[in-house]
């Protein structure tokens, strides 16, 4: 008896191999994100006095997560946490802490370069102990929220879609370009600032690939912003934050970043290249990820039962 022929996967303008094409998935995701973000932002303007440093990233976080859950449950039929890179295992705390520590070390190197080559000067603010604790705790909470929001928005659902349906290079590069575009309206940004934020996106995307999750990328993102703004008093992508130290630069803007902050200068380019290269070192990859990468890659794309 003849066996029936195996049906070929359907591919057309909307679908590729029986799955909605990435362009339509990502268009749907970012459209829902934008409308939800704008709606929640308008609602937030009617709230009593609040600090935008907490409210805005919180709105972004909610707006990034809800559309992803909807699409993963309805269209993709996939488990939510693994697809967002938020699966938790025994190595997750190590990856989160390793990312934060590595970013602080990178920022310390950048500070040293700014002091030596950028003519930077540092001043320690004279604050009461409780005020110091408030600055540090508030900065850590606000930058953690920012990191979760931006990482889930770009290197969560969109990264997973591109990784599965396109390639690793496309996932890293396209999300990095979007990361730069997100910051394109920041104060005093120039072409170097745009390029360095693109490079920072590649750095964070590399961490996502190396570890198979978002935890290290979140740690890197938080540690970078916290050290840059809250500890050392540099502008964070052109935005000034309350800080423990106050740092002023007088060197060439092409090196120091000028009024945009170190992220707009060549010194930051060097540090980001070193940080990205570090993630490829076998010893570093083995310590951070180990056998967890293989296991994670096997389970993070499981289809929902």
Structural write-up:
This protein has 305 residues and is mainly alpha-helical. The protein has one domain (15-299). The protein is 66% helix and 4% strand. It has 13 helices and 4 strands. The strands form 2 sheets. A two-stranded antiparallel sheet has the order 1-2. Strands 3-4 form a two-stranded antiparallel ribbon. Helix 1 packs antiparallel against helix 6 and helix 6 (157-165) runs antiparallel to helix 7. The longest helix has 27 residues, at 129-155. It is globular and about 65 Å long. Residues 292-305 have low confidence and may be disordered.
Note the main sheet.
2 strands, antiparallel
Low-confidence stretches: 292-305
Biggest sheet strand order reads 1-2
**Approximate shape:** globular
What is the rounded distance between the termini?
33 Å
Number of domains: 1
Percent in strands: under 5%
- Number of separate helices: 13
Arithmetic mean of pLDDT: 89
Structural class: mainly alpha
- How many strands in all? 4
Secondary-structure element pattern, one letter each:
EEHHHHEHHHHHEHHHH
**Cα-atom radius of gyration:** 21 Å
Oligomer: single chain
Relative helix content? 55-70%
């Amino acid at each position: 008896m003849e066996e029936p022929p195996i049906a070929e996967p359907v591919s057309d303008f909307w679908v590729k191999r029986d799955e909605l094409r990435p362009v339509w998935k990502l268009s749907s995701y970012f459209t829902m994100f934008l409308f939800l973000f704008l709606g929640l932002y308008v609602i937030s303007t009617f709230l009593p006095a609040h600090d935008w440093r907490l409210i805005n990233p919180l709105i972004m976080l909610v707006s990034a997560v809800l559309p992803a859950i909807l699409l993963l449950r309805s269209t993709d039929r996939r488990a939510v946490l693994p697809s967002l890179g938020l699966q938790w295992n025994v190595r997750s705390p190590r990856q989160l802490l390793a990312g934060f520590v590595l970013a602080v070390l990178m920022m310390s190197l950048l500070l040293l370069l700014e002091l030596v080559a950028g003519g930077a000067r540092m001043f320690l603010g004279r604050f009461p102990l409780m005020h110091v604790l408030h600055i540090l705790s508030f900065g850590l909470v606000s930058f953690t929220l920012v990191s979760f929001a931006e990482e889930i928005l770009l290197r969560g659902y969109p990264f997973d879609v591109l990784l599965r349906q396109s390639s690793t290079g496309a996932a890293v590069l396209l999300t990095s370009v979007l990361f730069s575009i997100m910051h394109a309206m920041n104060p005093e940004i120039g072409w170097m600032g745009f390029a360095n934020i693109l490079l920072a996106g590649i750095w964070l995307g590399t961490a996502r690939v190396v570890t198979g999750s978002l935890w290290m990328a979140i740690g890197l993102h938080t540690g970078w912003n916290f050290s840059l703004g809250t500890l050392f008093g540099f502008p964070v992508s052109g935005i000034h934050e309350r800080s423990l130290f106050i740092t002023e630069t007088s060197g060439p803007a092409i090196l120091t970043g000028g009024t945009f902050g170190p992220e707009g200068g060549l010194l930051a380019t060097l540090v980001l290249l070193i940080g990205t290269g570090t993630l490829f070192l076998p010893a570093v990859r083995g310590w951070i990820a180990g056998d967890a990468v293989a296991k994670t890659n096997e389970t993070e794309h499981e289809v929902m039962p």
